[in-house]
Amino acid sequence: MEDLLQALETAIQSPTDLQYKLLSSAVLIFLFWALRFVALRVVQRRIDDPRVLYQWRKALTYSAALLAFVVVGRIWFQGFQTLSTFLGLLSAGLAIALQDPIVNLAGWVFLIVRKPFKVGDRIQIGEHRGDVIDIRIFQFSLLEIGNWVDADQSTGRVIHVPNGRIFREAQANYTEGFEFIWNEIAVLVTFESNWQAAKQLLREIGERHAEHLSADAKTRVRQAAQKYMIFYKHLSPTVYTSVLDSGVNLTIRYLCNPRRRRASTNEIWEAILTAFAERQDIDFAYPTTRFYRNDREGKPGTMPQPANPEPV
To answer: Which of 19, 24, 139, 276 has the smallest number of CB atoms closer than 10 Å to its CB?
Structure first.
């Protein structure tokens, strides 16, 4: 062994004490790894349940790593001049190993102090949307909405999100500040329909189902303006007009409670179907194929002129 140490010392020109510590550390790490391997083999022969076997495997791995760290650390600790040096290296290693839990803990402090959202709020963070149902030290929980369910209704799943994600991703709060959202319903009517009458009907339906929110919304806007730069001139329902390939597109825009988006959409659509059924001059449009003859259907000023007009 002495000849081997002298050869190593000559090769790498390092103190014998350092070589001893390196070899001792390597031998101890191998020994603990071998003991873990033997213990795991014994457990595998006696346990058939995959879940229990998984727990034993994790427990043996953590135990072997902890014992190896303590024993090997004692060998190297003898070479440290002060306890503070060892504690400094230990704390640095723990900070690296526990980076995510520390960030999650910092996120929890931020949630408590800054309060970007609280329990009961409807939020979106990254690709996840839902109602906040719990905030804990390392994670908060959402009752998921959307995904395969339409109109922001609950899916029934609970999503646990690490607190640290609030530092890396933007959060959208449906209920903080203004407490209302703008919803839009697009209604497509044919070009031959009386689109002016349809637009008036849609405006009346929107006012009937959403106008009661305007007075309350104005009060909430004034309150939100004290904290955020939120300013709206018009809060009443309105209808916008645009043209698509298949017809005239009329879009109702109105305020609604975030949790009543689907209910309000259902009520407005039922009112639209009832109102349009009573009108003979309004039809819903849908993708169709149409052949247009300009010489027969066009306006007089746009019809093509004959090649050899008859003399007058």
So the answer is: 24
